[in-house]
Amino acid sequence: MKTIVSLIAAAILMFSAFLTPAKAIVLFDDVYADHPFAFEIAYLYEEGIINGYPDGTFRPDNPVTRAHAVAMIGRALNLDDTARSTGFRDVPAKYPFSGYIASAVEKEIIIGFPNNYFRPEWTVTRAQTVTMLDRAFYFPEAKDNTFKDMRKKHFAFDAVSRLAEFGVVRGYPGNTFRPDIPVTRAQFAAFLARALEPAFIPEKQKLLSTANKILAELQAEDFADVATYVGSSDGLTFCPYSGGCEGVTFSKAQLTSFMSSPDSYMWGYQDGSGFEINLTPAEYYDDYLMNATYTKKERYGRTSQPMTQEFIHQLYPDAMIVEYYYPGTEQYSQMDWQSLNMVFEKNSSGNWVLIAIINDRWTI
Length: 364
What we know:
With 364 residues, the chain is an alpha+beta fold. The chain has helices at residues 7-15, 38-46, 66-76, 98-106, 126-136, 157-166, 185-196, 202-219, 223-226, 252-255, 281-289, 306-315; strands spanning 3-6, 24-27, 236-239, 248-250, 265-269, 276-279, 320-326, 338-346, 352-361.
């Protein structure tokens, strides 16, 4: 039996910025509200990524099998789960997770063992888990990790460095990572939840709060306040589309008079027609920057337009992106979607600064 715990009690106190009081948090009989990963487990359950056992338990301390790990990642990425041949001798098409395993192979998230074996029932280690997540999600390059039990020649060294820098994984007391110990179901849920939803990482939750404040300043047309989030050296770049983004860059000082500037700029080219976009900043604000209704977010959320973020990461490989998405209307079958993407990078002092605002939309 699953237990419904009111957010008005423990849940609001623990993570009020993430879940709303109107919701209830669904926990399993063996995952109490004070479990260190209760909210990560609840989030993945809410998203349909994890399941429990028929007796209503989650068994958080049980190890995770390779097949279950791939299934959870597959659900998180909306991979094709159609049962089919996997190419592995020990995973026939009739195997329960053959579709996810085949898709994960196609996406180069997993590889097998010699002689075409996958070993689906083997447990996954911390190092193997980090490697799969590193292949499944985008993480910027990072400085080498300093865990005492990780050597550069270890197959997961770079992946551990990236995910530790991002905040997805942490070490143990004594600065060890323990790469070869099995991952429990609760630990795997925590890793996957942080990779999928950065708001579970305190630093990234704070950045999301900053982005919401910037959105409010944009809606108020207060570019003097927007400028306070911009670095002094690089300024702020605006692009109407993520693909082929060159855009226009305004210095911190120029931003203060953004809406009153009479100058016309060439912001880019209309996607589809190729015509130049020549507009004053105020016209660009109306036609592109704030042309849709965007609302503040409690979560980063899973993007509906992954290609947009791929294009942005090609331009800004070290960036953290906060996407605000307008889903479009039923009248146009959601083809009139738009997005506003705030692009942040850390400056030399280690602080996040806003470096670009990149819009995107469907074009024909």
